[in-house]
Amino acid sequence: MSLIPLSPLICAVLAAVLFKLWRVCVRVQRNSLRHLPGPESPSRFGGFAWQFWSTDPTEMHEEWVRSYGRTISYRILSDICLFTMDTKALAHILTHDAVFQKPYKVRTYIAELVGLAFSYDIGTLNVEARSNELCDAFRLVAQSVTRMSLWPMLRFFFPILRIFPEEQSRRFAKARKVMGEFASIRIDEKKREMADNKMGKQVRRRRGDFLTLLVEANMGSSLPEGQRLSDETIIDECRTALVAGHDTTAITLAWFLYNVALYPTIQEKLRNELLSIPTDHPTMEELSSLHYLDCVLREVVRLFPVLPSSLRVATEDTPLPLGESVNINGQAHDRIWIEKGTPIVISILAINRDKSLWGEDSFEFKPERWDNLPEAVSSIPGIWANNLTFMGGQHACLGYRFSLNECVPILLFRTLTRADAFGFCRTKVAVFTLLRAFELELGLPAEDVGRTPTMLMRPMRLSDPEAGPQLPMLVRPYRRD
Ligand code: HEM
Q1: What 3-state class would DSSP assign to 470?
Q2: Nearest partner of 461 among 442, 444, 474, 473, judged by Cα
Q3: Residue 461's beta-bridge partner residues?
Q4: Burial class, 413, CB count within 10 angstroms (exposed 0-12 / middle 13-18 / buried 19+)
């Protein structure tokens, strides 16, 4: 057997490995953060790379915080990472976004992973719908991020390996093409519709979807020619908003259902509150007045953040102020020096359930806590409801209001009423409609529900991880006596 066809691959891997080894030695020795307390690396070369990649690192971080303190360092390959649960430091990091940026590697990885999705009513919620290319493409993206395996990890840490074709990337490329074509057809349709409108023809206007709004704004007569976006840019903008919003919202919805099914008394109490409104078509004001619904949603978002952790990287040498001083070589320091290139790991879930902030019952699902929050949680620099689920600072989630006020209700409605099957109209009253109309029960033992150890935290069946994300539920019509 000839080795010739493999030689470029072997050479590239060897070169990348040698380069990384050299960087490990040089960078680790130079980095001042190595003097911070923290765990011993399990591997001389990789540090905690594999643990980080293959498991949800939240519990590992919580354990380290108990052993070494709230600000620690550890190694991943050649990087000494900073991990902090110090809310003063986190607030500084999130509000100095020019210095502490999202890492380039993560941005490109996400772009490859999900940057291809494009949502219009693609039928992902309708199990009986005839399979279509777009829907298949979207499913492919969702399912392919269920498990972390070695090759994607190598491609992430050694970007040079991305030059080699790989099955997943090939499928992503195909899906990207399908979605790009779909989007440009929609843009053309919209342009035609607007042109017909101008000529006074009667056309059915489809309003409200993101793409339509963007195309309309972009074609508006008040916009100077030089400021108009190209079609490609419009497609990219839609991808960003819709990819960032579609799965995240659907997963939050799944965790919402899980919790109301798991706690029948909470479900009952919530239903009673919803039934206190004497109409099936409440106004937004009526919905906003539903205090318990708000508390349940806050608790779901706190304990089930879709993204359990995030990363920032220092783009320059900079000091980082701390609320709680750290001990370095026997001396207490209330600020530490961060070197350019240092990755900073932010554990969203660990902060959201930190006992020292939320109290001893912080791991429990208790909507009532929102009536009497501990003072300490006000130091968490999150954009919404004293938690980090939507992060904070300038690069906090752009769509959190949309997600909580619009998408979760709409998705709830459409999932459980099978889009009008029960005669309810499509409005923001979905959560409201759902629990007034149905009783929910878990379709599997509660101990069998786990979280996928992936970038996005989805529900899965612990006894059947190979099947990917799932949450079987029993849904019965609710009979009012
Ligand atoms: C429950 C649903 C959602 C959750 C949990 C969520 C969570 C997040 C988080 C944690 C980030 C920051 C990531 C980081 O800093 O590493 C983020 C960013 C972002 N989200 Fe969301 N998101 C949700 C829904 C949405 C929706 C519906 C949209 C759009 C309509 C959206 C658009 C965005 C965008 C554009 C960013 C990037 C902001 C920037 O970098 O400046 N998200 N989201």
Answers
A1: coil
A2: 444
A3: 449
A4: buried
Helix, strand, coil abundance in the chain, percent, nearest 5: 50, 15, 35
Contact 309, 347 (CB under 8 A): yes
Helices 167-198 and 104-114: crossing angle, nearest 10°? 70
d(CA 156, CA 148): 11
**Per-residue tokens: 83:** 């991990």
Domain locations along the chain = 4-103+308-364
Q: How many residues does the chain have?
A: 481
The pTM of the full predicted model, rounded to 2 decimals, is 0.80
Q: Which amino acid is at 224?
A: P
> Ligand 1 pocket: which residues have CB below 6 Å?
102, 240-241, 244-245, 248-249, 252, 306-307, 310, 389-391, 395, 397-400, 402-403, 407
CATH top-level class for 4-103+308-364? alpha beta
> How far apart are the C-alpha atoms of 410 and 57, rounded to whole Å?
32
* pLDDT tens string 307-332: 999 999 999 999 999 999 998 888 99
pLDDT in tens, 390-434: 999 988 988 787 767 655 555 444 443 333 322 222 333 566 777
